[in-house]
Amino acid sequence: MLPSLVPAALVLVSVLAGVLALDTGPLPEVHLVPGRGGRYRASGTEGNPLFPSADVDLPRERAGLDLSPEVLAGQGEGSLFLETVVARDGSVAGVTVLRGDAQGEIALLAALRQQRYEPVRYRGRPVAVSVYRLISRMEVHSPLT
């Protein structure tokens, strides 16, 4: 029985070595969001965006965001933690406030929704990407002399 186990073990080891050699690495992180009927939306769409990784670049703005003094002078204080979903065409599909007071920052959120980006590609096709941002408002005072 022992002579037949040695070739079987060698076959098993060579199959495992082949699997490890052909592995292309991990795929980008994907979170699954059930759609209608409990089905999962396709990965890389606006309903199930990818996250930036080694294979998926961060979206680049087409033009810098022009924030007027009215937008920057919002009534909110503190920090906003946001999730921005950049659609496959480079438009902003949504801005979600994850932490902070969005009521005082309505003008800022509207300006962020107007941003335009270069479309992000993954394996040659345009994909939606989810990006997290921290926007902090800080008041600076000069030292008393």
Short description:
With 145 residues, the chain is an alpha+beta fold. The chain has one domain (2-136). The chain has helices at 2-22, 69-72, 106-113, and strands at 78-86, 92-99, 120-122, 125-127, 129-137.
**Strands in their spatial order, largest beta sheet:** 2-1-5
Major pleated sheet: 3 strands, antiparallel
Sequence of secondary-structure elements: HHEEHEEE
| Count of separate structural domains | 1
The computed structural class is alpha+beta
Count the helices. How many? 3
Polypeptide structure, described:
The protein has one domain. By secondary structure, it is an alpha+beta fold. It has helices at residues 2-22, 69-72, 106-113; strands spanning 78-86, 92-99, 120-122, 125-127, 129-137. The longest helix has 21 residues, at 2-22. The protein starts with a helix and ends in an 8-residue tail after the last strand.
Which features does this protein show?
single chain; 145 residues; alpha+beta; 3-stranded antiparallel sheet; 5 strands
Layout of secondary structure:
Elements: H1 2-22, H2 69-72, E1 78-86, E2 92-99, H3 106-113, E3 120-122, E4 125-127, E5 129-137
Antiparallel strand pairs: 1-2, 1-5, 3-4
